[in-house]
Amino acid sequence: MPELDLDDARKRYHFALAPEDYVRLPFYSALLALLEDDSLALELLASVRVEQRNPMLILATLHLAALRGHGELGPIYDSARHGQLHDPVGAARVVLEVLSHSPELVRSELGRSTQTNEPGRSAVLQAVIGDLVAGSSSSINFIDVGTSAGINLCFDHFPVRQSDDGNPLTLVCEDVTPIDRSRALPRVISRVGIDPYPLDLERTNDRMWLKACLWPEESRRHERFDAIVVARPSWPWATVLRGRALERLDDALALTDPRAMTVVVNTWVASYFTPRERIDYFDVLSRRCGEENVAWISIESPMIEWPGIEVDEKARHRGASQIVLARPGSLPRHWGRCHAHGRWLEQITAS
């Protein structure tokens, strides 16, 4: 058995949150600090298959145990979700003690996959797609790579506001630079998702895992998820293909209407690709965009380096996502940067 890379696991815990999120999430901040210095927690993360070696997997498995009614974890996470956790550091210590006494709570779930289907990113997708089709296409095909439960396949069904209006489905996104959100979004002719482990909102276990992947201190995200579960049956139907991106991309494209532009999107999934897959994926999308009526939107960590595209150092410094856009007939280039969950958006290139 190969030796576990505990130093790598320690770094992953240390950089799990963006700087602004450490300030907003005192419980998870305290818990990650403890996990970073705990030998068992390091061993657990280091033992995960490389494409899923993400601290969020450890956090989600602990949250899952709480949602299942664990006697000590349940009250802690419930208090965090309702803004009633008055001693986040003490609560984090209790969680670590539970882990030390019952490591199987986590170890038995490490074959799972974290899910990146954060609906807040639809606020960013609306802005980029609005810019992409401005003055041209009135309809598009939409392909979501890493679609999970397919929530962002209905990116156009969320209202977006600068502040909370009380509607749980509203996405609150601060537009750091001017974004014209008055433009009508294009009609979506076909919606196709690709995911190696797709989830179904109609299945109780899948819904619970998606809830576990949410951060407990963000009650707004939990309310929104619950509202999405209720609303989703009334939203447009979509096709979800099981498989890895490059295995199913041609199949997804074959399901689209050739008379309309096809927009291929990936949001925080490229970290689950192998280095070779990332290069091949970039090459395929670049060629498709250059030769066909295909556009590509990539919203990924700046730790993901696409061939020939300089890393957005400001995004990296802020722990943000860098947005890359390839228009039909053009090469990919930076479009902007945003919070990983769509809390804010900044456009850095002109239309």
What would you call the quaternary organization?
Answer: single chain
Structural class assignment: alpha/beta
The N- to C-terminal Cα distance equals: 52 Å
Taking pLDDT < 50 over at least 5 consecutive residues as the criterion, the unreliable ranges are none
Q: Give the tally of structural domains.
A: 2
Largest sheet: 9 strands, mixed
Please report the number of helical segments: 14
Radius of gyration: 20 Å
Mean pLDDT: 94
Explain the overall architecture.
This protein is of the alpha/beta class. It folds into two domains: 6-107, no CATH class; 121-347, Rossmann fold. It contains 14 helices and eleven strands. It has helices at 6-14, 19-24, 26-36, 39-46, 55-67, 73-81, 88-101, 104-107, 121-133, 204-212, 219-231, 245-254, 275-291, 313-318; strands at residues 139-145, 160-161, 171-172, 174-175, 187-195, 239-242, 261-267, 294-300, 321-326, 333-338, 344-347. The strands form two sheets. A nine-stranded mixed sheet has the order 4-11-10-9-8-7-1-5-6, sandwiched between helices. It has a two-stranded parallel sheet with strand order 2-3. The mean pLDDT is 94.
